[in-house]
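Chain A, query sequence.
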Amino acid sequence: MKNNSNDIRMRRWPGRWPGAILCAVTFCFAAGSTPLSAQTTSQILAKVYIARGGLTRIKALRSEKITGTISFGSEASGPFTVDLKRPMKMHMTLNVQNQTMIRVYDGTQGWANNPFAGKLNPESMTDEDLKNISEEADFDGPLVDYAKKSNKVELVGKDKVEEKDAWRVKLTTKSGDVRYYLFDAKTFVLLKWEGKRRADGKEYPIESYFHDYRDVGGLKFAFEIDSGSSATDLTQKLVIDAIELNVNFADAEFAKPPAADGGAAPAPSNR
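Chain A, predicted structure.
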């Protein structure tokens, strides 16, 4: 297992997707294909929102508690918990190999430890990590109200995911990052996510595949997410045991965590 806290990531589709989490890449279309109209893009996204449970339910959601197991191939596995609260608050705890990793974001500041690198106490996140976790904590995801978030969306065309026809949607974020979402052409649930993640100054390709959709409170969630650098190199697996909606989390849960030794955590560093 790599000694890098950014290896442990959740991927989510629009809503809670990301991310997940956590978790990711290359596809070529036939030459001469023409871009589809903006109206068609809007129509596809409208069906995606309906398949998810509808924008009214998505935006009415106040909080989530997600529990399950994460595994990194045959190397390690353990339980995880992710608490999310509107707007933009996240608390993630992961236990692997008798080590506990914590990542917390209060909507502005973030803290994380990396016990696998000997950093037991939470430290202020770097700008790079803050960017990552702020996207993960986006309660609705980048496709909901994408224009208000200065994101750009383009419907590129048709594709195949595990023998299923899929619509490929390209998202370009405000910062210029590009991701692809592949939605089932019949059910319009998310089948695959493609993108890159920056860690330690480098970019890493990631693919995530979404399975076992279940209804929770009128919203659909994938209860199994497989991620890796390619379809033949899926090294991270999330299996969700339970999702609780509208849990009454105190804001204090999303504050700076205490130090592992019970003392004060390190003060935020000036960047």
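The chain is about 10% helix and 45% strand. The helical segments are 38-52, 55-60, 127-136.
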